[in-house]
Amino acid sequence: MDRKFYEEMLTRHQNKDIDPEKMWDMRAASFNEAVKSDKSGFVDEVVNRLAEAGILEGASVLDIGGGSGRYAIPMARLAPSVTMTDISKNMLDLARENANSQGIANINYEKMVWETADLAKIGWDAKFDLAFASMCPAVRTPQGLKNMVYSSRKYCLINQFIEATDSLSDFLIERSGVKREYNPHNDRNAVMASFNLLWMDGYSPEISYLTREDRDVLSVEDILRGYVFVFEDIREKTGLEAEDLIREYKETYCPESQGIEVASRTVLAMILWKV
């Protein structure tokens, strides 16, 4: 298979009809709340792996599409310098607010469109010891991936979920009839495409996996934060309200529980390579 095949696979789900800056500005607050309610432990596991490998010690780190600071903040506790980019000013404002509230002062914030940024012009040629991106649409483009490599002098790491299933989501699909045409948390092809494009460019990427199988007892507030975009989509397409769906799920699957029980399985792929 040629390069074009994998480039098309990487960009297959890019929606050119959506203004990403406007979308993420609008979603920034609810995204930040979802990050705060995340109990998966993936962030700690990823950062710990990088620390144990010696990649963060004394390092300058770039977090591409860093959102509200989910990874940048814990990395900044271990690395002397972190720079995070995002297309959304609102996301960066929240990241700065979150970092300040935790006494983190060694993060630089840069608003940019990553895949079209002129990195040579701003002096980012091999500037960082680690270029990192987690679930970032900007590196799911050929140029975004090239820019990631260009910016690093040592390592690059991409996080991409390849499986994310849970009992509540299954119920919501069955009950509402609304199924996401594309779920970025179930995208094995993004990993396949990235790996093969890097391989064709002469790199030797390594893929490792983090897997979690949980049965959590959540509050209504936890679910409203964690599934905010799902409920927004369902309400828009069917008129069904989140609170009614949550109540029905609890009455059906866990009526005796103090909270709302949700069984889940999540697999995160980590693509690491040296430049």
Average pLDDT, to the nearest integer?
95
Structural class: alpha/beta
Strands across the major sheet, in which order?
A: 3-2-1-4-5-7-6
Strand and helix order: HHHEHEHEEHEHHEHHHE
The tally of beta strands, per DSSP, is: 7
Strand content: 15-25%
Number of helices: 11
- N-to-C span: 24 Å
> Which bin fits the share of residues in helices?
40-55%
Indicate the radius of gyration in whole angstroms: 19 Å
Main β sheet profile: 7 strands, mixed
Bulk shape: globular
Unreliable spans = none
Describe this structure in words.
- This protein has helices spanning 3-11, 20-37, 42-52, 72-76, 89-101, 142-151, 167-176, 188-200, 220-226, 228-238, 242-253, and strands at 60-64, 81-86, 107-111, 128-134, 152-166, 206-218, 260-274.
- The protein is α/β, with parallel strands linked by helices and 275 residues long.
- The protein has a seven-stranded mixed sheet, sandwiched between helices.
- Helix 2 (20-37) packs parallel to helix 5 (89-101).
Topology:
Blueprint lengths: L2 H9 L8 H18 L4 H11 L7 E5 L7 H5 L4 E6 L2 H13 L5 E5 L16 E7 L7 H10 E15 H10 L11 H13 L5 E13 L1 H7 L1 H11 L3 H12 L6 E15 L1
Parallel strand pairs: 1-2, 1-4, 2-3, 4-5
Antiparallel strand pairs: 5-7, 6-7
Key terms:
275 residues, alpha/beta, globular
